[in-house]
């Protein structure tokens, strides 16, 4: 291949990689459908192998997350629907996912959906315990934890003392 041909091949490969990343990033979270794996920061990397296989790296929000099997299947379906022939999804455990990877857009989407986004940085919580959690409905900080376990393992159940509404809190970790 000539130098020009090689460069065009590299550009085409990078364009395909970017497109594959964009497609994978739009796969919704089956447990919180207003979020995508891109919003969550679960999507770590996308590469195109020399044989044309799209390799996607994802990190679970916690070990044993049942959504990972759905993520894998939905990523494969989305990429194949876009014309990518072979797809391999890899689970990457290190470094471990943290709520610090949530995009600001994801935090706003959670709040609008009625789930309190994680308060503060995960590293701060490890040092100082629970942060104040604002009610996603009325914004009050007069809230209390009802249970460490919410509708999914990554959420806790809280209640607002001001508006008396229960709500999920996306655990900070």
From TrEMBL:
Source organism, top-level taxon: Bacteria
Ranges where the PaaD zinc beta ribbon domain occurs: 123-171
Pfam families per the UniProt record, alphabetical: FeS_assembly_P (PF01883), Zn_ribbon_PaaD (PF23451)
Domain MIP18 family-like: 25-80
InterPro entries in UniProt: Fe-S_Maturation_MIP18 (IPR052339), FSCA_dom_sf (IPR034904), MIP18-like (IPR002744), PaaD-like (IPR011883), Zn_ribbon_PaaD (IPR056572)
UniProt protein name: Ring-1,2-phenylacetyl-CoA epoxidase subunit PaaD
